[in-house]
Amino acid sequence: MKKLLIITCLFFGGIAVSQAQQTSPVWPGCEDSKDVSACFNKKLAQHVRENYKYPMEGNEYIRGKVTISFDVTEEGKVVVKSVEGPEPAVNDAARKMIEAIPDMKPGTLNGRPDTRNFTVPFNF
């Protein structure tokens, strides 16, 4: 019985130790935030409001829904992986907006820089 208890303790102790420790990328200005993920989301929303340039066709703004997939690389750079939406002009404007995100401190996995993927839908 003692052997079973010891084996069980070692097994669960090993699982606890082997769990990966992850951190989110840190947007400039979020370094001292208690909730880095919430600060990241807030800064992303602010970036969208301040940097999205609505494309025009004639005198009309072109609107649409876009889903953007991007990575924050191990170097903290933002790389757009895909932009999906029915309006090419909106897709292009959304791509440019995401590419303008500033470099940031990358996320980590077990203390080492790690690429993180984000997929975000936008309605413009």
UniProtKB/TrEMBL annotation:
The keyword Cytoplasm does not apply. Residues 1-20 form the signal peptide. Residues 60-124 form the TonB C-terminal domain. One of its GO terms (biological process) is transmembrane transport. Pfam families: TonB_C. Keywords: Signal. It comes from the Bacteria. SUPFAM superfamilies: TolA/TonB C-terminal domain (SSF74653). Gene3D superfamilies: 3.30.1150.10. This is TonB family C-terminal domain-containing protein. It comes from Salinimicrobium catena.
